[in-house]
Amino acid sequence: MSDAGLVRAMNADLHCHSTVSDGWLLPGDVVRRAARNGVEVLALTDHDEVSGLDEAQAAAEAESLHLVNGVEISVSFLGETVHIVGLGIDHHDPALLAGLAQVRGGRDERARRMSEALAEVGIRGALEGARRFARNPELVSRAHFARHLVSTGLMPDVNTVFRHYLTKGKPGFVEHVWASLDEAVGWIRGAGGIAVVAHPARYRFSNAELEQLFDRFVACGGEGVEVVSGAHSDDDVARFATLARRRGLLASRASDFHGEHESPVDLGRCASLPPDLAPVWASLLR
Ligand code: AMP
Ligand code: MN
Ligand code: MN
Ligand code: MN
């Protein structure tokens, strides 16, 4: 096989989470689980946070696994939350670190407001409960609220909590303004990384709005899209493969693994990319 063919055939998983954000496993344990599952190129991409990367790199050195430094940045675009993954970043870049600190800074107030909103429908103590599930006090996510509400027996699983309480229009949802798309892509590029639109099928956008997202993303220097994602159906993969071809975007493959009982796809167990697409990891391994 050619070098390009060998790189394409690698088991790459370029999006997952550790306890530094809303994953269940410590950064080193994420890496060891990935290695056990046969992952050859892994990116740890915690929400708005890079503090797990040193531990993950140390673990990757002990395994035969290439760890790409990553992050998943929360962005507001057309009133929706959009996630932009940064791959191959310098995680000591001052502007990136300042930007991420600013995004994390908004989470505390948001968590307080979510807890107040839940109290209004009779659910008390949600913030304290969510905090017990958050290993990083700066990173309380809706996932931690959901886990708390499952642990109290109110709801059977986190998906049900999201459906009833934590999505737009539901009692525990509060509007929040994250980074702008331009800021997030700018921080990633400034840190030497490649910006990738995460799980594009998840956004509640019309086709026209989705095109606006990608127009703007490309205009500010974004280069990739998750074609294969743990959140995507086969139809979604086909749809975003078409988009990647049409826009000449690099394609990513991503489980978005958070934990064994919470994620539909385990580390490295995603479908393969359609063979004609340019795998983003080819650019990261150079
Ligand atoms: P946040 O960044 O605080 O808004 O939380 C978003 C996180 O919540 C996502 O990264 C997922 O981990 C989790 N999440 C979002 N929607 C769902 C859902 N429908 N079911 C389970 N987890 C979800
Ligand atoms: Mn998450
Ligand atoms: Mn996401
Ligand atoms: Mn994610």
**What is the strand arrangement across the widest sheet?**
1-2-3-4-5-6-7
Given as residue ranges, the uncertain stretches (5+ residues, pLDDT < 50) are none
Radius of gyration: 18 Å
Distance between the first and last residues' Cα: 18 Å
Kindly name the structural category: alpha/beta
The coarse silhouette is globular
Q: What does the largest sheet look like?
A: 7 strands, mixed
Nearest-integer average pLDDT: 97
Bound chemical compounds? adenosine monophosphate, manganese (II) ion
Q: Give the fraction of residues assigned to helices.
A: 40-55%
User: How many beta-strand segments?
Assistant: 7
What count of helical segments does DSSP give? 11
H and E string? HEHEHEEHHHHHEHEHEH
Roughly what fraction of the amino acids lie in strands? Answer: 5-15%
Describe the structure.
- The chain is an alpha/beta fold and 286 residues long.
- It is 43% helix and 14% strand.
- It has helices spanning 3-8, 27-36, 53-62, 94-120, 126-133, 142-151, 158-166, 181-190, 207-219, 234-247, 280-284, and strands spanning 12-13, 41-44, 66-77, 80-87, 194-197, 224-229, 250-254.
- The chain has a 7-stranded mixed β-sheet with strand order 1-2-3-4-5-6-7.
- Helix 2 runs parallel beside helix 3, helix 5 (126-133) crosses helix 6 and helix 6 packs across helix 7 (158-166).
- The longest helix has 27 residues, at 94-120.
- The chain is globular.
- The model has no long low-confidence stretch (mean pLDDT 97).
- The site of one manganese (II) ion has 4 residues, from loops.
Short description:
The chain is an alpha/beta fold and 286 residues long. It is 43% helix and 14% strand.
